[in-house]
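Figure 3 (text version): structure tokens given as input.
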């Protein structure tokens, strides 16, 4: 029997319109569980529990049909007043990007707000976020792997235009890598 499995990375549309995009949540905000998409099966797996006593500051996931230099889909942080369950599709408004190096490798994080959450959907650019929240994001990502003896460096935060450029580049790399090729 030759049965094709559904894979959220490859089989869900990102529906990007230049502002809004579909993100798929892997990790709800407020948890220490590091869930990750198993790229082959499309299932969600528990990669590890964070070694540090820290909690994800935002809902964390990926943008479908994207690919980056770290051989993963493009990461997205979706701000919302609620913790979003894993594998939930979330329409989100892109507001910026956090550019970082994980173990010396580029690992950008798109920052967005949930389009369906009236507590944040009025935000249009990362510059509208409280400075302390940006400091919290930086601190979390620079510190959450220290007890694993791994290095993460947050280089800079960019606005919506920088985020859109990175998203579009990830679409091109996805198409170059997967479209027309057997997965």
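Below: residues designed for each position.
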């Amino acid at each position: 029997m030759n049965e094709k499995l559904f894979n959220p990375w490859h089989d869900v549309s990102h529906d990007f319109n230049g502002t809004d995009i579909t993100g798929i949540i892997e990790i709800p905000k407020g948890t220490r569980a590091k869930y990750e998409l198993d790229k082959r099966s499309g299932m969600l797996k528990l990669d590890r529990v964070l070694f540090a006593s820290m909690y994800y500051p935002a809902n964390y996931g990926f943008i479908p049909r994207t690919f980056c230099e770290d051989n993963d889909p493009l990461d997205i942080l979706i701000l919302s007043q609620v913790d979003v369950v894993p594998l939930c599709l979330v329409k989100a408004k892109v507001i910026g990007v956090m550019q970082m190096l994980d173990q010396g490798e580029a690992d950008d994080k798109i920052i967005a707000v949930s389009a369906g959450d009236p507590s944040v959907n009025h935000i249009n650019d990362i510059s509208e976020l409280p400075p302390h929240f940006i400091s919290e994001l930086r601190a979390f990502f620079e510190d959450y792997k220290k007890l694993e003896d791994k290095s993460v460096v947050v280089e800079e935060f960019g606005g919506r235009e920088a985020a859109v450029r990175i998203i579009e580049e990830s679409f091109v790399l996805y198409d170059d890598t997967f479209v027309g090729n057997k997965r």
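Helices lie at 8-11, 131-143, 160-178.
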